[in-house]
Amino acid sequence: QVQLVESGGGLVQAGGSLRLSCAASGGIFSINEMDWYRQAPGNQRELVASIASGTTNYADSVKGRFTISRDNAKNTVYLQMNSLKPEDTAVYYCTTVVTSYSVTDYGRKSRYWGQGTQVTVSS
Q1: Average pLDDT of 60-82?
Q2: Beta strand 76-81 pairing with 66-71
Q3: If I label 63, which of 31, 46, 92, 103 is the partner at 20 to 30 A Cα–Cα?
Q4: In what order do the strands lie in the sheet with 76-81?
């Protein structure tokens, strides 16, 4: 069972920056992709950014302001958020798709989610 631990959320003024981190641990696995989603009150969860095999993708609303990166040695993904806007306020979730190399689940792909971290941008 893979666990994802997120950190870095908080309260920031519009125009400010935050850096989210998400570390994956537990079991024997390889990471296929890591993504950041967010969900604002009353809205559906939406994909913010993803990274897989060095390729990154971003939602149009964050292009040019957010940067996703990954430290493979630490099984950690980061989301650098600059020029934050009040509409970026949401709970941000880290998620990953991994291939298991455990004896019982060898070759099985699974998606895991973090617990979420609150990002609040004040105007």
Answers
A1: 96
A2: antiparallel
A3: 31
A4: 3-7, 18-25, 76-81, 66-71
Tokens of 112: 């895991």
The 3-state DSSP composition of the chain as helix, strand, coil percent (nearest 5) reads 5, 60, 35
In angstroms, rounded to a whole number, what is the distance separating the alpha carbons of residues 63 and 110? 28
42, pLDDT greater than 90: yes
User: What is the overall mean pLDDT for the chain?
Assistant: 95
Q: How confident is the model at residue 17 (pLDDT cuts 50, 70, 90)?
A: very high
Nearest alpha carbon to residue 120 among 65, 81, 94, 66? 81
Tell which phi-psi region holds residue 115, choosing left (phi > 0), alpha (psi between -120 and 50) or beta.
Answer: alpha
Cβ neighbours of 32 (radius 10 Å): 14
Q: Tell me, what DSSP letter sits at residue 123?
A: -
Cα separation, 56 vs 76, whole angstroms: 15
